Amino acid sequence: MNYVEASFVLRPLLPAREVLVVELAERGFESFVETDDGLKAYIQEEYFQSQLLDDLMTTAIPDQHMEITSMVIADQNWNAQWESSFDPILVDDQCLIRASFHEVDREYPYTITIEPKMSFGTGHHATTHLIVSAMLPMDCIGKRVLDMGCGTGVLAILAEMRGSTQIDAIDIDEWAYENTLENVERNACKHIRTIRGGAEAIPTESQYDLILANINRNILTRDMHLYVQHMTVGATILFSGFYESDQPEIRACAEALGLSFVQSKLRNEWTMMEFVIRATS
Q1: Is 223 within 8 Å of 116 (Cβ atoms)?
Q2: 126-277 in CATH: which number?
Q3: Is the link from the previous residue into 203 a cis peptide, with omega within 30 of 0?
Q4: Running DSSP on this structure, what letter comes out for residue 233?
Q5: Does residue 12 have a cis peptide bond before it, meaning omega lies within 30 degrees of 0?
Q6: What would the pLDDT profile of 21-74 be if each residue is shown by its tens digit?
Q7: What's the pTM value of the predicted model, to 2 decimals?
Q8: Which CATH number fits domain 3-82: 2.60.40, 3.30.70, 1.10.575, 1.20.1630?
Q9: CA 144 from chain center: how many Å?
Q10: What does the pLDDT look like over 161-192, one tens digit per residue?
């Protein structure tokens, strides 16, 4: 399967890069790599049209300059592409996310080895980093977990490493589904069930103590009621994939469904919000 790589040079870099990721994701781009001067975005060649790069709202940012080029990346070249751009990520000095070709300089409480390929979720993006950071102090032992929009499977893998014993990792993208299967095996995980699909693919009988949903705002608000239906009393849900300015909409939707706000955290203008569902009186 071939992909189209769209490369963006941005001056100034921020906030344009963060805006661009959201906008391109809404246009069907699946994966992103941040560069020193901009962004690389990837979409399956069969879905690419040059018009997808037209009329980007990012160009409306005052004094923003953007240069765009695109090229086809053959499937067999993808590993080399990642090896040139994927650096290890350390979250809170506890969780190292690395590729197999990275050297490890010391031991960490949690070391996750992934080959990210085209899938989102390496820890480079602020949203993945935020959820990993939020998970680290949690009691995950024996918990039932849903990783919704799992990407590389990194959050599901961390959940198992921290003691969760029943984990469903779901993604609608075939490449992410296959990549999660590979990374689950690579990290010798035994308690992760990988499922391809959207929110409708959540197993009917499943109830979760922790739900991780790192998706975009529109999908979160559309599918949130389905997530809530699968939460046990007292369960926690972590949302990310949106900006600080989106918090009021996310919070209003969550509270209308009976969720109680716990906290929010920011990283590079991106947000993670934590909610719990409490027993009704």
Answers
A1: no
A2: 3.40.50.150
A3: no
A4: E
A5: yes
A6: 888 988 888 777 778 889 988 888 889 999 999 998 887 788 899 999 999 987
A7: 0.76
A8: 3.30.70
A9: 19
A10: 999 999 999 998 887 899 899 999 999 999 99
